[in-house]
Amino acid sequence: MNSKARAVPNTQESASSSKPSKKPRRQQHSQLSLDYRPHPGQQLFHDRPERFRIIAAGARFGKDTACLMELLRLVTTAAAEPDRPATIIPRVHAWIVGPTYPLLSEPWRVLKRTIPPSLIVATNETKMSIELVGDILIECRSAEHPETLVGSGLDVLCLLEFALIPEQAWTTSLRPRLASYGRWGLLIASGTPKGRNWAHRLYLAGQNPDQPDYWSMQAATWDNPLIDPAEIESMRDTMTSRAFAQEVAGEFVTDDGAVFRGVRGCIVPPREPRGSVTVGVDWGTRRDRTALCALDENGHLFAFESFRRIPWSQILDRVVSFIEATRAELVVPEINSIGDPVTQDLESRLAGRAIRIEPFLTTATTKRQAIDRLALAIEQRRVSYPDIPQLVNELEIYEYSQSPAGNVRFSAPSGQHDDAVMSFAFALHGSVLHARDASGPSGGYVDAVGYGDDGGRSYENLGNFWVERSSY
Ligand SMILES: Nc1ncnc2c1ncn2[C@@H]1O[C@H](COP(=O)(O)OP(=O)(O)OP(=O)(O)O)[C@@H](O)[C@H]1O
Ligand SMILES: [Mg+2]
To answer: How far is the CA of 141 from the centre of ligand 1 (A)?
Structure first.
């Protein structure tokens, strides 16, 4: 766990210099009694007096719980403040803001469940707002439409999963809510980091001794003593090291960098395939290559071909030859605007054979899933491939980048290609589908006709496929 270690500033001087009604909160006591025992990491946060407090932590740390409990403590303390101006209505006002409404539904349930019924005056389910005795109003708001986040001055703003909230919502809509005369204007924000976006800068302000109004802490899932260490190890096994660093260790991982780690560790001498074969197809355009990868049941990429600048009909011929030569049972061609008609052509060419075609529809989400799966498989050496220069090079240079809006993108560096990477990712996606189907209740393949006698497979000609065949 990491938090800014420095002298606790005098809240009256630093945090509330523009807020005459503010008192050092540590000396104030709420009348609220809750059945909540913070763990040591949460306690660190509750004890701090700064105006802006930020928790960046891994999943299940107890971020939401700590923020909601702190919010309740703060609003009830504020309501008990004797010198609060009578003109401000409601007397105490707080918002809980999340990136979307669905992400607010759990905190909203927790809030209603936690507040003693004797304190509740009214609850509005549609507006997700709750009124407490002492003229306290707590409202849940989504940051999806920042233009609606107006009209109120706040005593407490609680941001949940703050790293997923757009920066613009914070700077133009939310931050100004904290500058209202007579109100405390406090921020409590928590979330799991998402790269190095504005949330990282807010976190850094909390680490900067020159910004005494800000305090931040960074913690991991394992800093929550209630989490079973075996769960952490199980997550480590199923996540890439980058995803683990971010989602579990709660670190602000760098925006740009290599996606695939341990690429050379998966290089093995060429060997014959074992078990069923899946082929991934990344269709080329005028500029890009068409790339084909054949993967066996053990995750060994035993055949690879790539070519460009040939007419579509010839591309199709070569794809069909590759599928035949590798004896693929499953083919995963990409479909998008270009891939769709050509995939239909491929389907007609393969009609009547025991070859299943499972198109891969590329969207930002499916692409990310396929790339993540490949990254994890490479990191854990669950795939292997011969030293194919184009493939190894593409894997090594493939990178993450982050858009100004905070979205992570995967791509080859500008001017470079990613066809081999994509066809590999499609093939791996297909072989996972295949394995699932084979072990699922329906199992196996349909249309097992016309495939010929598969008794003794021969792969003697496959050696040719190691070599990249480019047609320029
Ligand atoms: N101090 C505590 N004592 C007991 N249970 C707790 C405590 N803090 C959190 N919990 C429980 O642990 C679970 C996770 O807490 P919470 O939702 O606050 O974590 P989170 O960090 O927001 O998790 P996520 O990453 O899933 O959003 C919840 O069921 C919550 O009730
Ligand atoms: Mg949460």
So the answer is: 21
CB atoms within 10 A of CB 154: 24
| Total residues found in the chain within this entry | 472
Quickly tell me which residue has 């939401």 as its tokens. Answer: 64
* Atom 6 of ligand 1, residue of closest alpha carbon: 62
131 burial type by CB count under 10 A (0-12 exposed, 13-18 middle, 19+ buried): middle
Phi, psi of 122 (to 5 degrees): -155, 150
- Measured in whole angstroms, how far is the alpha carbon of residue 164 from the centre of its chain? 9
Q: In angstroms, what is the span from residue 107 Cα to ligand 2's centroid?
A: 8
Q: Which of 48-52, 223-227, 282-286 has the lowest mean pLDDT?
A: 282-286
What is the model's pTM?
Answer: 0.70
* Ligand showing the shortest atom-to-Cα distance for residue 67: 1
Phi-psi region of 299 (alpha: psi -120 to 50; beta: other; left: phi over 0): left
* Stretch among 238-247, 296-305, 374-383 having the lowest mean pLDDT: 238-247
Which atom of ligand 1 lies at the shortest distance from residue 38's CA? Answer: 1
Given a contact cutoff of 8 angstroms between Cβ atoms, the answer to whether 292 and 301 are in contact is: no
- Smallest CA separation from ligand 1 atom 12, residue: 62
pLDDT at residue 471 is higher than 60: no
Q: Which domains are present in the chain?
A: 2-247 (3.40.50.300), 264-466 (3.30.420.240)
Taking the centre of ligand 2 as the mean of its atom positions, its distance from the CA of residue 111, in whole angstroms, is: 13
**Pair of tokens at residue 129:** 């707002």
Q: Which ligand is nearest to the CA of 68?
A: 1
Can you list the positions of beta strands (E) in 143-205? Answer: 156-160, 186-191
Place of tokens 């995967």: 410
Residues with C-beta less than 6 Å from any ligand 1 atom: 37-39, 42, 59-65, 192, 226
What's the confidence (pLDDT) of residue 254?
Answer: 75
* Distance between Cα 61 and ligand 1 center (Å): 6
Listed in sequence order, the residues at least 6 apart from 441 whose beta carbon sits closer than 8 Å to its beta carbon are none
Check residue 338 and give its pLDDT: 64
Q: For residue 106, report the distance from its CA to the centre of ligand 2, in Å.
A: 8
Q: What is the pLDDT of residues 160-190, one digit of tens each?
A: 999 989 888 999 999 999 999 899 999 999 9
